[in-house]
Amino acid sequence: PTNGDHSPPPPPPPPAVMPMGSYLFWGKNAVVLFSGFPDGHLGMYILALLMVFFFSVATEILRAAAPRVKRISDRRSRAAVVVLIPAAVHAVRMGFAYLVMLAVMSFNVGIFVAAVAGHLVGYY
């Protein structure tokens, strides 16, 4: 309503936002790492499960390989490239670990099971 004053119009109502629950759920309707992925498609959900499983296995394999890589690089020349190899292995391992952590934060039971199973397989 206008009553002659020049006050600004009221702000628009806030957009409807779907609240993110902090509870575990099962199903293919999850958001894993990227908005719109897997987007409710069963094939993409299975791909997400396999990716999380792979990243978990790779994290454990790199964890086990790190001491061996360090020993080998210590025996070799102290050239900068050789010294950086253990650091690169560690950086890749941490990148995989953070991707797994972010995927698990989707609170999807399937993603959680894939992450734990991957760590189990990678440990042995």
From TrEMBL:
The chain crosses the membrane at residues 42-66, 78-96, 102-123. The keyword Membrane applies. InterPro entries: Cop_transporter. Its main location: membrane. GO terms for molecular function: copper ion transmembrane transporter activity. It comes from the Eukaryota. Pfam families: Ctr. It is found in: Membrane. Keywords: Copper, Copper transport, Ion transport, Membrane, Transmembrane, Transmembrane helix, Transport. It is a multi-pass membrane protein. GO terms for cellular component: plasma membrane. Belongs to the copper transporter (Ctr) (TC 1.A.56) family. SLC31A subfamily. This is Copper transport protein. It comes from Genlisea aurea.
